[in-house]
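Step 1: inspect the first sequence and its tokens.
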Amino acid sequence: MNVVPDTSVVIDGRVSATIEDGQFEGATISVPEAVVAELEAQANDGLDSGWDGLSELQRLAELADEGTIVLEYIGERPSAIERGHASEGEIDALIRDLAEELDATFLTSDIVQAEVAQAKGLDVEHVSPEVREVGTLTVEEFFDDQTMSVHLRAEAVPMAKRGELGEMRYEEIADEPLDEATIDEYAREVVDGAKEAPDGFIELSEPGMKIVQFRDYRIAIGRPPFSDGIEITAVRPIAQTDIEDYENADELKERLLERQRGVLISGAPGAGKSTFAQAVARFISNNDYAVKTMEKPRDLQVGPDITQYTELAGEMEKTADALLMVRPDYTIYDEVRKTDDFEVFADMRLAGVGMIGVVHATRPIDALQRLVGRVELGMIPQVVDTVVYIEAGEVDTVYDVRTEVKVPAGLTEEDLARPVIQVTDFETGEPDYEIYTFNRQVVTVPLNDDEDGPGSESGVDRIAKQEIEREIRSVARGYVDVDLKSQDKAVAYVEDDDISSVIGKGGGRITDIENRLGIDIDVRTHDENPSYGAGGGGGGGGGSGGAAGSQTGQLVEPEITSRHIVIPVDGSHGETVEVQAGGDYLFTATVSRGGEIQVSRGSAIADDLERAIDRKDPITVVPS
């Protein structure tokens, strides 16, 4: 008796299982070279299916050595063109042709293959993959009631994050490191379990990386060359809460049920954002709202009545299109990170779907600022009207977001009225921030600056001074210092040679600046500045004196954007230069071909540079 197996039944391991059951004992098992080629290609791509199939071929060789079967390899290896069309059935056709030539029994666990082979008159034996009960994975044994995640790596001691939300500890959970063979065995057990368990699936499968959802666990498996060693990271939620467990629960519930809203749930990693999102999802679902989720990977723990969607054809935009046909009342979007995510979130919200997004943020206002530049400013309150900030598993801050046409706080001219986004503390009812366009830039102004101490500048004052300096520097060649006397009056100190340029003929130029900013500006020389020479940043710019070596370079005027501090430099393209503030060294950089230096905001260098700009220190660029 001759038996020709196809690739599917070799991968499933059902050839040897059928032989051991006695069905094909003594038969000649003719393995097509096309099957070997497919398995080899899959193994080279790092796919477990290839390795599983090669292991099955080794078991068949052992059965042949024992005399249980006769094993032979037949046919020719498929060409590169045929392998390239494997998904279109070319390899399957080659294997069926060999079975027909040998008048052999065609063995497969692929139902499509079986149907086609029967239609062609072959003797077909279709066997289903063995379904077994999946018990406890070895990885699960590393968890206890307070373990949020387990981190296993070859040649390293197993580690885990344990503790209460907001008080996690990263600690060793074993005495000895695990060897690579053990980690590999754990990884294969996870993948096999996900394939066989009804509550498991493979979320992502790429060469070097697999993400598995198995019961309550999300398990990421990294392999070379993607990682420099085999690594397993298993994460499990350690808390399941109800919305009633949180502060302001009644007000939040009323707000969510009042109408479909746009909500951002924000917080630092591990703060409990997803736990709160799950509580919200269960609450609104229990109150007769149709709820869906958009996740990659899918790891929110929600009830069976909430369908969890992931990327459709690799794009969340297509998932959104499909969901708009389903028309949920609310969609939980976990996590909103990239520009595409924010655009999808906004599109669905503007289509009338209630949206709840989970975002990373270190301050409550940061979640809202991530929309700036990604969504038209006037549309932000229509996209997001509520921001919930989670810290240490508790609701720390809730913001109400709305638009009002008014004169921004701190400005007095009525003709400066404009649309202003007011960000109001939900608990106190007091506005904390205003977001609006000022001199063609979007600014976020804090209205409560108590944390800066008595006598400190308000957010409005800082922004007003920056804008006045920017306008004056556009026409002045030397150092500029601004002293804001009140909400509508300021003094600009400039070099003697710049007075006429700044004021303009008949005062026309300074009048234009005053009209644009809505502030009266008195222009004076640095000699009239009370702080001149006192170390306050008025120590003469552009070569008019100062500390030795501190003003010998090129005086520059940095521009602060939402993401960068841009330093324009005349000449020196491609050269290495030092950036100094008030004569003190800040950092060394290379001037780009476009004649500028860019520093990403949020870095230590950018923080130092911004503080120097706030102090009005002259910023100079000196050849290195």
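Step 2: inspect the second sequence and its tokens, then contrast the two.
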Amino acid sequence: MTTKSVDVLLVGAGAMSATLGTLLKQLDPNLSISMVERLDQVAQESTDGWNNAGTGHAAYCELNYAPLMADGSIDTRKAFTINNAFEVSLQFWSYLVEQQVLPAPKNFINATPHQSFVWGEENVSFLRKRHATLSAHPAFADMEYSEDPEVLRQWMPLIMQNRSPDEKVAGTRVRYGSDVDFGSLTRGMTQNLQAQDGFELLLERTLKDLTQRADGQWDLTLKNGQTGGTEHIRARFVFLGAGGGALPLLQQSGIPEGNGYGGFPVSGQWLVCKKPEIVNQHLAKVYGKAPIGAPPMSVPHLDTRIIDGEKALLFGPFAGFTTKFLKQGSSFDLLKSVRLNNIRPMLSVGMNNMDLTRYLISEVMQSHSARVDALRKFYPDARAEDWTLSHAGQRVQIIKKDADKGGKLEFGTEVITSADGSLSALLGASPGASTAASAMIGIIERCFADRLASPQWQEKIRAMVPSYQQDLMQNTELLAQVRNRTLSVLQLDEEHRAPKSQPAPEPLDSIQALAS
């Protein structure tokens, strides 16, 4: 039996694995890395452009990231955390563009204003308060607010068509929001990795077994879908970045840190319009409020999408339920994930989330006309014949132990790492790929701590992310310089970057000096 040895094995060829592989290869080009993917192409599950909303999540427009609290205040904690994390991604992508690792920015990211829209007195009051609270911080100071129908008609013409003049409405806008083609971004990073020595992409390989050796390394057995044979790899570090497929692999690894975790699969669907006469009237991502009982991933939004250069509009998502953990997975995935150590949390979540269950059932039963009726609340003139139904990627929400309730359902992302740092797994969904750089740097901090402490790695990581180890929500002077640079490099604020009104981006060494 021939066993290949590598320093790093990445399971899943999506945005997370590509980001971690790229970070590590930039830090040490001599690392040997293999990326394993069960499908025949890269970025075909949740990372694919049509399987996600493509929102560069910065908490500008997503109302659930800054909710109204019982005492009437706005909780900004998640908004600040997500905004800071997305700024890390923008810095990393800017570095890759400058180093010509990635192609021209418009191949994977495009300026698309991020807007919120609500109607009704209560919702308008909430949005007014949300804007006042967030815009008081420099990170959100560019957020505009209006209750003027004429201003809103300029921001979101489709949404304001034929609305009653008596309807109370309000909106916010951040002009330099972004639409990200995560599929294109991932393929760009992977192609660059393939051009380097010491990297191997193994497509149509399914991970069948992983076992940790006495020396801490991992022995992995792969099934080759092309030949039907088996292959063996020994890895010093394993990253399970297989989307919904990460949970079963985490369980199979046997690390105690994975005990108690379960998954709740939620599918999604979009209404898609590709008619140029409609698409060209809308350039924004406009988020509203989620229906009562809906999971956070079901916040309705009307989005401009630019995938492989093609523009379209998406509305949704409409939630659904399936027992698959991957879009191209098995109907037995949920059943197979049940273990003695997670059955109590999973049963507890099932019993305590009946409203969510009823909501998902109602979503599944919707007709096309019912979905279009939901769209008309956003876009009053929408016609059913202009929109088709598209199935989004599969999301597996996290179920974990809870001392009080027995189990709880979470809608974020979480990294689980073994005590010895030899294996990490990423579970969960939104904000997902938008915060990939921050999440993967966190893995490097935990699993490559000794090497990261070296002067060489410190210098390299600060070149990739000048704000490394800085909280941009606190260091607002650094935030201003970093944001000015990334918006310029990624071409996200071109219309508003006239020399008289916008300073030239600071040189990278000046930003690094401020950060240190």
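Step 3: confirm your contrast with the notes below.
The CA atoms of residues 84 and 355 lie 33 Å apart. The chain is about 35% helix and 25% strand.
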